[in-house]
Amino acid sequence: MKLKNTLFCLLLSAASASFAEDKTPIRIGMQATGTSGWELSVLEQDPEKAKRPFTIETQPLANAEAGKIALQSGAVDLIISDWIWVSRMRSTGADFTFYPYSTTSGALVVAGDSPIKALADLKGKRLGIAGGEFDKNWLLLKALAKKQGFDMEANVEKVFGAPPLIDEQLKLGRIDAALNYWHFAARLEAQGYRQIIDGKGILQGLGIDEPVANLGYVFKQSWASAHKPALNAFLKATETAKKQLCSQDEAWRSVIPLLKTNDQASQDKLRQRYCDGIVQPGGAAERQAAERIYLLLRELSGKQLTGAAESVQPGTFWTLD
User: Fold this and answer.
1) Residues ≥6 apart with Cβ < 8 Å to 53
2) Where are the beta strands (DSSP E) in the chain?
3) Spatial separation of the C-alpha atoms in residues 112 and 110, rounded to whole Å
């Protein structure tokens, strides 16, 4: 009997090892403040995770640029980035591709009692801008202001800086408005600051109504093609996790420690803005809208942001099949 039990245990162990070997490891580069960690936390707690054809390995990243370097060097398989960068890289021969993650980008925020109600009210004011002069939100905001007859370059004092610095400058009253990334803007809103316009509103003002993902999962097309079943299963699982975070309070409560705030108003606003950004990968209409955004950014940045290519490169967007 003991011999039979031993043989059974050995067979079970071998079967488990074989099953584990069949799983595809997906190495994900993650920033500490990134919301992708929320979804991965939900996936980790899923009682059905043993049935998935993939495993997840995470690697911390200092910032977005570190993620691009890690992806290009092969240190990770997947990062969160934007399709503009993917298209630019493809125009140079790289085979990166993009799968939509979120339509949420940034927002223009002012103090609750600020007299600023519209873009033209920024005349003579100090505007803090997260990122540099080629930040997409800034380029598109300038384009919208120009459409409204207001030249922001000539009439606004610009202060560029990292998101936390811009956030702090607004709180200290050293700038009159902040164009910052969505989660910084959401936390400010929870503290009584007021949103003038967000990334979606900017695009709508420019005549682009179709939701287009600002951020997405980026990976090599060659790697994706070699591991398609596992990758597609992962992407579908993360979409389910997003929906759970927005529809199931229990799932949301499980990620609250990752928010690093005990303030209920901040937690609620972060959840609201996160859920506002959920995107369903679209078809031809979304691609056409992306093309229009690309052409705008190409012109506005003098090709500095997009590179020389005249259009979004074929293969930029990955589709599930």
Assistant:
1) 22, 23, 24, 229, 230, 233
2) 24-31, 54-61, 79-81, 96-102, 106-110, 126-130, 157-161, 177-181, 194-198, 215-220
3) 6
Domains of the chain (ranges; CATH) run: 21-103+212-275+283-300 (3.40.190.10), 106-205 (3.40.190.10)
Query: What is the amino acid identity at position 133?
Result: E
254 closest CA partner among 237, 271, 266, 239: 271
Copy the structure tokens of residue 62.
């200092």
> What is the CB-side half-sphere exposure of residue 15 using CA atoms within 13 A?
6
Q: Exposure string (b/e) for 277-288, b if CB count within 10 Å is 16 or more?
A: bbbebbeeebee
Q: Residue 127 has which token pair? A: 């505007």
Tokens of 93: 């021969």
For the chain (321 residues), the mean pLDDT of every run of 10, in chain order, is 46 42 91 89 90 95 93 96 96 96 93 97 97 93 97 96 95 98 96 96 94 94 96 95 96 94 96 91 81 95 94 93 74
What is the torsion angle, in degrees rounded to the nearest 10, for the CA atoms of residue 56, residue 63, residue 82 and residue 142?
160
**What are 269's two structure tokens?**
């606003």
Q: Give yes or no for a contact between 255 and 40, defined as CB atoms under 8 angstroms apart.
A: no
* Cα angle, residue 211 at apex, residues 210 and 213 outer, rounded to 5°: 140
